[in-house]
Structures are given as structure tokens and as C-alpha cells.
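Weekly sync notes, structure subgroup
Attendees: PM, AL, DS (notes)

Item 1: joint prediction request from the bench team. They want all two components modeled as one assembly rather than separately. Inputs as received:
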Amino acid sequence: MPDASGESNPLALPDVDAIRAAHARIAPHVHRTPVLTCAGIDSEVGAALYFKCENFQRVGAFKARGACNAVFSLSKDDAQHGVVTHSSGNHGAALAYAAQRRGIPAFVVMPDNAPKVKQENVRRFGATIRFCAATVSAREAACEDVQNETGAVLIHPFDDVCVIAGQGTAALELLEQASIIDIIVAPCGGGGLLSGTAIAATASKPGLRVFGAEPANAGDAAASFRSGKIEPLPPTVTIADGLRTSLAPRTFAAIRAHVAAFGVCSEDAIVRAMRMVFERLKIVVEPSAAVPLACLIERSLDVAGARVGVIVSGGNVDLDHLPWQ
Amino acid sequence: MPDASGESNPLALPDVDAIRAAHARIAPHVHRTPVLTCAGIDSEVGAALYFKCENFQRVGAFKARGACNAVFSLSKDDAQHGVVTHSSGNHGAALAYAAQRRGIPAFVVMPDNAPKVKQENVRRFGATIRFCAATVSAREAACEDVQNETGAVLIHPFDDVCVIAGQGTAALELLEQASIIDIIVAPCGGGGLLSGTAIAATASKPGLRVFGAEPANAGDAAASFRSGKIEPLPPTVTIADGLRTSLAPRTFAAIRAHVAAFGVCSEDAIVRAMRMVFERLKIVVEPSAAVPLACLIERSLDVAGARVGVIVSGGNVDLDHLPWQ
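Output from the run, pasted for the record:
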């Protein structure tokens, strides 16, 4: 099945020019988010960190970039019946937002245990939610039903050339804002953000290295990176709910080609990193967004003395249930 | 007694040139904080808001500006024995930070019930804390003791020409970053931030109006503004602990001359505004910093359809005791 770019090769990837084109395409629809620094965190980690604040992005997550690029890349004919996706939340909200900007319908398939804040984030932009059981097969079946009923185009959360290109635009901006950096760390769930980041950053600055960060409890991408084949998601649970996803062959190919190393972190370190970001950087982040810093705190990635860009992926967290409480 | 500028006239105030000079003086020591916007909050309030994020400032509050300007304005002779202040926290931390940057001692007199996070914020920068009872007279006595023992110069939290000039630099930056604005709202405790903001902004942009914002439970500045004389602080308690302070004749004079209106807000609105800022703007703020937005939510200030700068004064909040929990 072709993806939003009309691409049917399941291993096709955007190049840096496609990511630059995406950046121009989505510029009217997304924020150029600021980069923050914090001397206190730097001294804890032993490196100079540049936090790219995608928690300030439209819909509260970098996902707005990929969704906007996919939706605005559709031809008028393809777009007319709307778009559909399955998502634990942020991509769903992002697709709803992008569809509203283009004036087309959006349908979002969501597990019935999705956090309330993520449900509200989708409804706010006028999308229709279809609830399903919290399994991959139930989600895919519900998505197919919507496609068959409405003619909506599936926009996959990460296994999509246009989505990956859109996610890579955050790294392009980060390199404009902090050209000094020599490492970028991004969290890895399905691998869309990490793929786009790695393609954009390594092509833009020779010698720059991109690292992936994962919870040890959902360390399938790190394991796949080591073994050379896509490993299954472990059955354990992580607080970083945005990262409970397996790689696709497409994102795995990008990661193998362009990512230099993976780190994993404990659940405890995610909570400590999240609290450190609230307390010292004064920004609100979701657990998944704290995973790169958690890996730096636990030293599973070696960044000693380096200048490190950190993609802060999102800020949609339930403020009634902060994990340190 | 002369203040940090050597000024002994108790009604002396900085002009906009002094604020511009302060901006240049403190530039190496403070962050140029970003300005954030949020379409969701704008539609709740019915105005376009530009949030000047002084919660991202050094020590987590705008107070770093005034303290740095005061400390770096001291002559070498005056500076050599250090500086002292009484402060519920943010000014104390700011003074400790500024003194550390200049390499001189700092002494901070603090009530023994001051929040732990604020105590740590002072110790982090190597200052010596002197605890005292939580009354104005006990603070002043402890401060005098330190001056007599050490020869340290008193840097008052707001009743000081250099401190007011430093606080005004946030408004100068805001007008560079969002020159479109026609109103600025700042919270008012002792009035240092509001005075500096009003002097800087009204001189920089003709027609621009500056509004003060206060909790109704500590509405002494609003009452003073109406009555034309400094009214006492009511005995009631507000969650906005940074604003439990009376005006000085100096700040009252600036406010009467340059502030166009005052708004007050309920405690409930402060909590709702604070949560809205966490949830929608994705930043961590302390209750005092939510007071301007609380006044806009409760419509005690009329900003309908305007472009409004909001000074987000600080982000030092106890994350174990968020007020909506």
C-alpha cells in the first residue's frame, strides 16, 4: 500500500533535500521552537546540552511536523476524503490538527485506555475518535474499517516517507539554532523521529553523531540495533508510553545507516530526568521526552565534554498524576 | 541610607536610559529569555498574549536582572565586603547568584518557613543564610546585624534604583521580541518589577499601557493605586507568596506615574491560570507568575482584542505540592 507520499517501496526514505522541502512546506503550520540551556543540568551530566523544545510545538509534540508534512503533501484528490491513523495520542492529535489546517476530515483510532489529555488533544481539533482494544491488530483492523467506509488516506505514525521527513525538520532547526553541537540524542519508539533526525543531521553536518535513547523496559530498538534484525517489543511496561512501539523495516533501515549508538535507561531514571527538567529547565515534559536525558544521567550514552542537542519530544502529561508523586 | 546606586533620595527612580544601561551591564550574566505564544490560551482570554518567560531566567526568576544590576553597579570598594538582603527567596537566590558572579560574599536573611526549594536556590550559589522570624521587623533587624558584623551592602529586594532598573530590562527585551504589543501586564508585590516595566515600556513605545496584577487577597497595591496613598497589606493569605509585600514610596511613585490600571484575581483563578500555563504553554511557573493571566481570565483587566505582553515572573514552585492536587 502506498504511503502519504504515494511511495509504495516499504524501505523508501526521505533524503535531506526532502526534509528541507518539508521544512518549507510546514513552516506556516508549526512553531519554530526555542532551544533552552541550563548550567545546572550541564554540570550534572558533564556535557553542554541544547534542549530543542518540541513540547512547545503545536499539539504539544514534534508529531505536528510529520503530520503536517504528510497532510500538505497529499494531492487535492487524495486529500478530499480525509485522513485516518491509529495512535496512542500525539500523532493522532497532530493529524487532527494538520487536517483541520487543510480543511479535511480526520479519523483517529485510539486504544480505549488512552490518557484523557490525549483524547482531548484530538477532539480539540475536530477529529472523530474511534476507540478499539489496546492491541496492534485491533488498531489496524479499526483503521482499515475507517478507510473502507470513508475513503480516508492512512497516515501511519512513523512508517511513512513524508512523516519521517517532517520529523527530521526539528533537527534542521536545532542545527541552525545551535550549530556548535556535535551529537544529537532523540528518543526512539517506532523510529520516525530518530530516522528523520539522523538523516537530516548527519547530512547537514559532517562528523555529527546521532544517538537513540530508549527505556530499558522497551529496549527493542537498541536490541535490534545490536542484533541487526528487528527484535520484538518486550512485554514489560514503561512509563514512557509514547515509546511502546516496534520499529518498521523503513525506520530500522534509516537507523542502521545513520545512527551511531543507542542508550537505554531505567524507569527510575526517567522519573528523575523528568523531574529535573521540570525543576531546572522549568518546562513541562512527558515521560518519553525525558528518556534522552535519563540515558545521559545513567551514562548509557557517552557524551562527556560534548555539545549535545537533545530533542525534547513532547509535553502532554497528566498533571494530576505526575510520576514522582 | 543610600541604596546600591549610592542614591539616598527615597523617591529617586531610574529613567529609560538607566534601564538601557542596566541591560548592557547585565547581559553577560542573564538569559535573554524567549517569548512564547499559545493559540488555545488566546482564545480563552480573547486577546493575543506574548509570554515573556522569566521563569527560564537564571535562578528561575526575573530577580536575577535587578540583583545583577545592583551588584555590578557597586564600586570595588563598596563591593569588597559583600552584599546582604532579606527575601522570601527569589531575590535572595538572585543576589547570591550575582555575588557569586562578581566573586564577593552574599548574606541572605530568610524567614524560617521559607520553601525548601528557595533555600536550596540560595545555597546553590554559595550564599550564607541567616534565618529569622517571619515578620518584617525581625528581617530588618537581622539584616542590620549582618551589615554591622560584616560591612556588607544592603541590596533591598525592590526599594532600590538599580534593582528597579534591572527588573525593567525584561520589558525592553519583550518589546524587541514582540514589538507589536500595546499592553504589558506584570505582577505586583513590592512593585520593583512593575515600576521598572512601566518606566521602560511607556518610554520605549508611546501609547503602550502597563497594567499591574495582584491577588485580591494581597490587593494593597491596587487599593493604593485607587486611594492615592500606600495602603497596608491585608492580613489574609495568598498562594502567590512572592506578592505578599507592600509598596515602597519609591515604587508607588513609579506606579502612579506610569501604570494605567490594576487588576485583582481570586485564589481559585490563580490556580486555574497556573494549571493552564502548565497544560497549554508547557512551562513551569510559580503561583505569583500566574497572577497576570488569572486577572485576564477573570476579566479584572480589559484587554479584549489587544496584543498583550505578560511578564511570567518565575518558576520556583514546590513540585511535590502543586496547588491543584
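Discussion: Chain B has a mean pLDDT of 95.
Action: AL to compare against the crosslinking data before next sync.
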